[in-house]
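*** Fold description ***
***
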Amino acid sequence: MTHTTQDTADLETYRRQVRAWLAQATVPEVPLDLEGRFAVLREWQKTLYEAGFVGISWTRAAGGQGLSPLHQLVFSEELARAGAPQPIGLIGVDVVGKSIETYGLDWQRQQLLPRLLSGEDIWCQGFSEPESGSDLASLRTRARIEGDEFVITGQKVWTSWAHKSQWCALLARTDADAPKHRGISYILVDMSTPGVTARPLVQMTGDDEFCEVFLEDVRVPVRNLVGQLNEGWAIAQDTLSHERGSYTLRRRVEYEVAVEEAVRNLRGHVSATGTEPPDRVLEQLGRSCTAVRALEALTRRTIDRQLTGDIPSPYDSVDKLSLNEVEQLLYTSITDLLGPFRLAADRAPFGLDGPRWVKEHYYSRAASIYGGTSQIQKNIIGERLLGLPRG
């Protein structure tokens, strides 16, 4: 899509507005502990929402600002460059909320989406299961209809923020005899419903953001169904498309800021001491800079696809796979700069905060798993874009 001079002028005007607001805003200090971080970022989301910076590319009818994905990108860029954090409710805002806006009933859009945007309600995504991660369509959670209720039984896992969430967008099998990609329904579950148990899982970062969720004869009103009965797979693909695309847009800017910070600190160290890091580390960091720039170009194409409505698309898998590789390359490179002092809280090699970057490095190892593994993304690219036969 060709962007006009007027489009560019509008975006620059918006960029100045965002910068002006951030310059006068009280940007919160985010605690390291998960409980404190969650509370601070939830309040920050409320602040952003009241200022008109949540749901930027959502329609006004759904409670958003009615602007374009380019405006969302501008805001994400300025937020990262100001050193300000993202809001906590991105699973709702970037992922499941968009699907509810598109496929949901009037009451779901009118009652649930405003609270989702403001952070009053936090959402989680009940897709993956212990034996149905990458092969999502093999999920075993069941939902049968009794009167005007679904009765749901099953288990989910890797459900981010489930123990802090008020709502869950859940996939359940409602027709056991249908082929595995059919007979699945997309149901909204109030997490306070009797029979729902969320149990946190400790990650290697030390956080317990992920959870396993148990559902034991959970009764949910049939009106919580999104779309049509047994046709939830298409809606799930829409949700996953938003997850991959939106995450790529937001994280790309954070990677850019991170690599610029590392290079700036490295130059300062070399200038002050005359000591240079090994060529291997410099080469890796150079590759990271190049990779981030390539991801930026890919991001622009992703936005063009969003503007033309070309989602979901197999190209979402290209975005996700590229993001995985850039994230892991970047944080491995920065961690290598720290050398043997990477876990020493009282040392800052090259001016870098060791514990912070090590934690980012640990978290990056999950990039090739969450949102669909790299192997699955490669299969989608091979089959749907390159026309290769199924293995």
